[in-house]
Amino acid sequence: MFTYSCLNPIASVGTENFTENYKKIDTNDADAILVRSASMKEMEFSENLKTIARAGAGVNNIPLDKCSEQGIVVFNTPGANANGVKELVIAGMLLASRDIVGGIEWLERQENTADLAKVVEKQKKQFAGNEISGKKLGIIGLGAIGVMVANAATHLGMEVYGYDPYISVNAAWNLSRTIKHVTDLNEIYQDCDYITVHVPLTDETRGMIGKEAIGKMKDGVVILNFARDPLVDEKALIDGLESGKIKKYVTDFVTPAVANAKNTLVTPHLGASTEESEDNCAVMAVKEVMDFLENGNIKNSVNYPACDMGECQSEGRIAINHKNVPNMIAQFTKVLGDANVNITDFANKSRGNYAYSIMDTDTNVSEDVARQLMAIDGVLKVRIIK
């Protein structure tokens, strides 16, 4: 019997996938934790906790270093909410190109008189804007969301430029052939009327839309940020908005600096706030957890390497989270060999400072063998899968 707990409400369409072998509990002593936005930074994790699944893409609310060191595999659900975010990005471009919001707010302030229609006809020119068809859109980051935005924009008649030095094979296959894949980010800065950012927040990308980048952009550029707010240097952004260099800044992240800044359109973190996105994320998160707990397989982890040996067909399977250091495999095989346990299949993958090994055996692995493996220096967690 496996146990799980939910720190946030998780769509039932996802949790209904749990079989009778799973029980929901209210404590943090569960085998798995499902989470959306709840902060886990200050949480103390039980030794029993094996995995955390974030029903969404961002994992800023989860202490990844701490989880890695304790052998806790953290999953996210990349692409599950991509369509919801894509639609909001497209809406953001339309709202920025034509003063739709300003027009609606102006009309709400007018008295409902008999000549209101005439007043509207006289005043509507102040809310006139531009069409996005024929304009150049630059997309920085061609992951699941970036690819969807790119393909949708081409159907709206935009000329789309995409930049991603690490584009995956799958993303490349899904990308429309009309997208211009550029290798120099400056080309997007210099040529595009609209620029949207879809990259993860790292030390390298923090503040990437800063004074230097903005200085290279066209006058009147529209910048959209539906990825992470620290990707944009707020001081440089505000300076660009005040000077008119930036026509509009559209973002899904509310911060004191941009909430009431000139020429900003700020939505209250609505990117994945659709029923469909929440359902998709819940289903993916639960499936990731089940495959990991039942088979030891890792897919879409943000702190441990992908490792998949399918459903276990042998008598035994053991999974080991460990440091990525020399001589680990030799130590594992010695312990198993001394216990007369024969390895029938084996996988070892590494990611940075951490690694993960799965071993199928022709006999069951005893708790005593598991304890011996756990005693090896650098081993973080040992699980007998079968």
Report what the structure shows.
It is a single chain. The protein is of the alpha/beta class and 386 residues long. It folds into three domains: 1-81 and 275-304, NAD(P)-binding Rossmann-like Domain (Rossmann fold, 3-Layer(aba) Sandwich); 82-266, Rossmann fold (3-Layer(aba) Sandwich), CATH 3.40.50; 305-386, ACT domain (Alpha-Beta Plaits). It contains 14 helices and 16 strands. The strands form three sheets. Strands 8-7-6-9-10-11-12 form a seven-stranded parallel β-sheet, sandwiched between helices. Helix 10 links the parallel strand 10 (221-225) and strand 11. Helix 3 packs across helix 6. The model has no long low-confidence stretch (mean pLDDT 95).
Write a compact overview of the structure shown.
This protein has three domains: 1-81 and 275-304, Rossmann fold (3-Layer(aba) Sandwich); 82-266, Rossmann fold (3-Layer(aba) Sandwich); 305-386, ACT domain (Alpha-Beta Plaits), CATH 3.30.70.
Broad CATH class of the largest domain: Alpha Beta
Strand order of the largest sheet: 8-7-6-9-10-11-12
- Strand content of the residues, in percent? 15-25%
Structural class: alpha/beta
Helix content: 25-40%
The major pleated sheet works out as: 7 strands, parallel
Architecture blueprint of SSEs:
Layout: E1 2-6, H1 12-15, E2 22-24, E3 32-35, E4 51-54, H2 64-69, E5 73-75, H3 82-97, H4 100-108, H5 116-123, E6 136-140, H6 144-155, E7 159-163, H7 169-174, E8 180-182, H8 185-191, E9 194-197, H9 211-216, E10 221-225, H10 234-243, E11 246-251, H11 256-259, E12 264-266, H12 275-295, E13 316-323, H13 328-338, E14 343-351, E15 354-361, H14 367-374, E16 379-384
Parallel strand pairs: 1-2, 1-3, 3-4, 4-5, 6-7, 6-9, 7-8, 9-10, 10-11, 11-12
Antiparallel strand pairs: 13-15, 13-16, 14-15
Helix pairs in contact: 3-6
